[in-house]
Amino acid sequence: MLQSWRNGDQSALAELMPLVQEELQRMAHHYLAREHGGQTMQTAALVNEVYIRLVGASQIDWQNRAHFFAVCANLMRRVLVDAARSRHYQKRAGGFKKVTLDEALCVSPQPDPNLVKLDDALQALAAFDPRKAKVVELRFFGGLNLDETAHVLNVSRDTVKRDWRLAKVWLLCEMTGENQDAL
To answer: How many domains does the chain fold into?
Structure first.
């Protein structure tokens, strides 16, 4: 179905979505459960936003099911980071209040500094070591386990485990400003 969709068959996407809807909901719920209490985006709204972005990404050369979910994890990350950055910019808007008509997409008016810091740190890690950044993205944002992540990245489970452990420490140091030379 992924290849049919890539080749222009829009009905393939319509057939695909009901098959992956439950897994996308699980991924979205997994991530949103980790968010701080100010996050009010619902899992359905996050999945819908991912779907909207997927519709515009029909030219991706889908490799397999795991690749599809990896792309979805990346899209979820982008949606949530964009929302956090937007809240931060709105805070600086100087007294104007933006009104939204879609309450399902309403998010907290407070920026999530941890999500923005995490995204900045993850971008820095990607510049330094792209595979470790991808491991974090798949595990943290996508909710994939070690085996699923290893399959997507085509590396061993032990490599993913090692990358996950080092990336977590590196990101913590980056986010807290601690000296990374000790690593």
So the answer is: 1
Residue 99 to residues 45, 67, 90, 139, 160, Cα–Cα distance (Å): 17, 37, 11, 34, 43
Using left for φ > 0, alpha for ψ between -120 and 50, and beta otherwise, residue 51 falls in: alpha
- 68-80 mean pLDDT: 84
Residue 125 belongs to domain spanning: 2-182
Looking at per-residue pLDDT, the higher value among 93 and 170 belongs to 170
Q: State the sign of the Cα–Cα–Cα–Cα dihedral 77, 83, 85, 88.
A: negative
Tokens coding 182: 């000790």
